[in-house]
Design a protein that fits this description.
With 262 residues, the chain is of the alpha+beta class. It has five helices and 14 strands. The protein has a six-stranded mixed β-sheet with strand order 1-9-8-3-4-5. The radius of gyration is 34 Å and the shape is elongated.
Amino acid sequence: MIRTFLFFLLCLIGVFDVESHEVWVMVGDAVTLDSNASETEQKNVIEWRFNDMRIANVIMGNPTYHDNVRFEDRLKLDRNGSLTIKDTRITDTGEYKLSTIISNRESIKRFSVTVYAPLSIPVVTSDISQCSSGSKCSLLCSVVNVSHVTLSWYKGNSLLSSISVSDFRISLSLPLEVEYQEKNTYSCVLNNPISNQTRHVCITDLCRLCSVPFSDEVHYDGGTEVVIRLVVTALVGLAAVAAFIVLVYDIKTRRVEQETHQ
């Protein structure tokens, strides 16, 4: 009966948009979409829709909920018609529309809500197989499982390059080529409208193998430096053993000579 009555009213009244809002919230936080309803408006019909599906309404100050499956009792309406979403989730991202029938006219407020997941710190790697003859070093900044973010390279406070994604992607990467002997400060920044994560980069540490003459034959996979250190350590060890053998031989030779002369 109420649904039929509402449909009949909407056929008779004029409809006009009055406000649009953009709202950002972190996963797990609560967000309130304020109706700003006056006492006069509270006595009328107030309806909330999510992506064009009715989820709640207030008639004469009495709230009713219509989609407990999606929101699992996470919605709360006050008598003014303001809607609170508790324990927000990524799936709560979308458009929320508030319709208020006032004096045979329908006013509408739209709330574009985006729920963001916590950001991880970007990972920066170097590939010395891409070292160029001009003493350049190739860096790659990467993140996984991101949406609605921007990934950027900075040199000090100056923006060098950036890439953005609005939908969900498995991974996002941004390359950068630098001089391996540079002393400037570089950083890779991942951000969305409400938070950011930064990875500061030490060019000397990441690109030092680009100065090795045989670098074209070395593939940097995170373990190359360890292998080089092991080889150097082994050579030093062999040299120490050889020196010890020579010393022992020399001592024995001297003893034999002393015994012969006696």
